[in-house]
Amino acid sequence: MHGDPVEAFDKAFELAARLAEAMRQALAERGLTASRAEVIYVLAREGELVQRALAEALRCTPRHVTGLVDQLEEAGLVQRRPHPRDRRATSVALTAGGAATARWMAESRHTAARALLGDVPGDDLAAFVRVADVLLGGVTA
Amino acid sequence: MHGDPVEAFDKAFELAARLAEAMRQALAERGLTASRAEVIYVLAREGELVQRALAEALRCTPRHVTGLVDQLEEAGLVQRRPHPRDRRATSVALTAGGAATARWMAESRHTAARALLGDVPGDDLAAFVRVADVLLGGVTA
DNA sequence: TCAATTTACTGAACTGGCTTCACTATGTAG
DNA sequence: CTACATAGTGAAGCCAGTTCAGTAAATTGA
């Protein structure tokens, strides 16, 4: 039960790399990338959005959103519609397929979480979350 | 003390994204990228290596290693030398500057770990590591 | 009402990480 | 000596993402 800060810190980085890779693979099987998936995630959470708002939510350039929406529209997951009031703006919404993909993502998350962590004692999970929060708080600063 | 698997899982992903970004920034200040830093890390750990071995350690193509070593050599952090026995091979070693960079990386890791996690109870750290290990084990499969 | 300014999107061009493919030079086995 | 495998690299290209310039529409303000 030693609990060395450096060991925990290193473990967090190793975890980061592996989780990113695992997610990348899982998404790739559905033809998604992390960025494209994030667009779907945001649209599912926030509802229909104008591209500019999407750029802010994704913390990327408006130009890049154009490209992402191009790709997702091509894949039939989102749909561009003229904004009712502002004719400059383009509103982006999930299609039925996009909504289904969003549900798949949410479900995979739950399934994976239970499969991987279902047998872990609740106290350990709570401690994990506490430490993760400390790291998250410190890293932002 | 609830300890919800899904919450912990989500937290792990959030942590992954934030840690990657934080590391990217820290490395960028020294003109490094994650890949270039990994070359230095591997060379510091394993000692002088042939490019082919480097490619295996980094899990990337030999061609990419050529590029990475080009950049690091340009920056004066590593040095190419002909392999003593195999005239096809090129051996890569850290320069003094590269070794100093490796020490800086190790030290930063320790410093950050203690700054961020120094006040966290040892039991929580141990639990964190346990959960991280469960995730690492499950993700590989 | 009209000119000046701002805002939303997109084309063109570019950077950076990374890959594949083709090629050269060298080593190794029969 | 031939046949084959291996180490590195040039050329070309893919993908994520950016900047810059341009167009069209909205907003401001005299």
UniProtKB/TrEMBL annotation, chains A, B:
Residues 9-137 form the HTH marR-type domain. It comes from the Bacteria. InterPro entries: HTH_MarR-typ, MarR/SlyA-like, WH-like_DNA-bd_sf, WH_DNA-bd_sf. It holds the Pfam family MarR. PANTHER family: MARR FAMILY REGULATORY PROTEIN (PTHR33164:SF99), TRANSCRIPTIONAL REGULATOR, MARR FAMILY (PTHR33164). This is MarR family transcriptional regulator.
